[in-house]
């Protein structure tokens, strides 16, 4: 039946599309259409609003979850053998895609968008629902988790981890905006947003609850890194007599400067770490 503001559109399948454009994905055919749209980049698991805020699209995540629910577990043709869900196998690329996937154990899963000009070094993994923008470098041992959003001309250095999220469906995924440099072994989790042109030094770990201490603006950030910020790992003293006795300190990422318009990310990072 059709409920409220929703309308039935095709083939006797109820609640396929809502009046605001959201789709109901409940059949294999609808799952295939959604995965194709995600790969093309015409549909995304999260988008940026005019005010700069990022919002997850629950219906997309629900559709991805439907892909797993409607799949069979099958053997797949993969070096060494593989067993996975039938509707979300590894993607294949050709020269027409304009993507370089260097041999050596990399896998990009069905339903992930990888734009022209992206280079993926082995071994790396890009999960379903993820978006990787044009000109981005995905270096060795990088994980781009489910539904993570990566902009254009981003550098994800060796062993970077971008956490994924499918449930709860309303949870915002990790977002890395355009022209960001993410240093080696950084970890971004729990829907943290790294704004455009930011630079993260190697080893920076951020979650939605991590406090980032801004030494330039003399303020604190939580859940996001501001545009152009240069973040390095830091520490602050732990509280309490026991901590004082042992000289304990807590991890505390610190903004030490902001990128100038003409400053190369690698140059500004080298200067910040000196």
UniProtKB/TrEMBL annotation:
GO terms of molecular function: 2,3,4,5-tetrahydropyridine-2,6-dicarboxylate N-succinyltransferase activity
UniProt KW keywords: Acyltransferase, Repeat, Transferase
Alphabetized Gene3D superfamilies for the sequence: Hexapeptide repeat proteins, Tetrahydrodipicolinate-N-succinyltransferase, N-terminal domain
EC number: 2.3.1.117
Record domain Tetrahydrodipicolinate-N-succinyltransferase chain A: where: 27-70
Superkingdom in the source lineage: Bacteria
Family: Belongs to the transferase hexapeptide repeat family.
Matching NCBIfam families: PRK11830.1
Protein name: 2,3,4,5-tetrahydropyridine-2,6-dicarboxylate N-succinyltransferase
Organism of origin: Ornithinimicrobium kibberense
Lineage of the species this protein comes from: Bacteria, Bacillati, Actinomycetota, Actinomycetes, Micrococcales
